[in-house]
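Reopening this ticket.

The earlier resolution said the output was attached, but the attachment link was broken on my side. Pasting everything inline this time so it's all in one place.
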Amino acid sequence: MSKIIITSNKNPDLDGYACSVGYAEYLNKTCKDSEPILLNEIDDETKFVLDFGKIRALEKNKKDISKNKIVIVDTSNLNSLKLEIAPNNLIEIIDHRRINDSYLYPWVKTQIEMVGSCATLIAEKFINDKIEPSRESRLLLYSAVISNTINFKNKITTDRDIKAAQYLSKEIDLPKNSAEQMFRARTNIEGENLNHYLNKDYIEQTVCNKSLTVFQMEIVETSSLVRDRLKEIITIIKNIIKNKKLDYCFLNIIDTLEAYNYIVVVDAKSEDFLRKVLNLNFENGLAKTDFIIMRKEIMVKIKEYLENNGKVC
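Inline output:
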């Protein structure tokens, strides 16, 4: 029997990467031959954790996995893999988004639970079955929980995330400022890196028959970025969405150290829409919150708003 392939989005963030590695280890320790696969690139935050932990990175996959059984983690969208994989080969989905595509695969074993990090769901499997994860999986999964909950400052953080992090933190010997180091590592947006960052981290989704493209940045020192490069950001976004037929488009920027957001819109229609959905005041296409709100939370608010205003979902 061929290996079960565990993977995440084409360009996974730390949560997707950690879950791929951690869940493959869990399955192997429960006698299910599994292999984590990296489809394309990892981000700078994941590189930092791998380097810090002296963990060998997964190599970009060069195998034909089109006939393997597939498990996707930290996503429910098979199309996000950008691979020609038959839907019938998908056997399991593990994700933590309220708005998800799992309904498209009713035959698939699905775990969608509202926790801050998908890594929490993987950690709980080790905990519940009393299976000891390796130091490498502990470090990756712990770092993913810290990353996704923004060191527990994020409103989506649950007690389950905190308990998972406490369990995973054993035996990995992290410095006290490891979270800040990690957050700074992900903020590599100098020069052309900004264009690369924005091109890599956006989603296209239809909610209640409305098409949205939503960008997200999780960085430090966002005020400097907005002050110095807002026009450049808007130009990059307009180039990315050029020729797309969209109802709404926006960028969600999260300051991971100071715990607030900037939201950037590039057109009046999106600005008016988000003003109503999020009750924000925009000035020159820019609004600021005094709290963290994640893209996945905004998508839920958009869905609720459209449903309450008579749109079919």
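Reporter confirms the inline version is readable. The radius of gyration is 19 Å. The longest strand covers residues 210-219.
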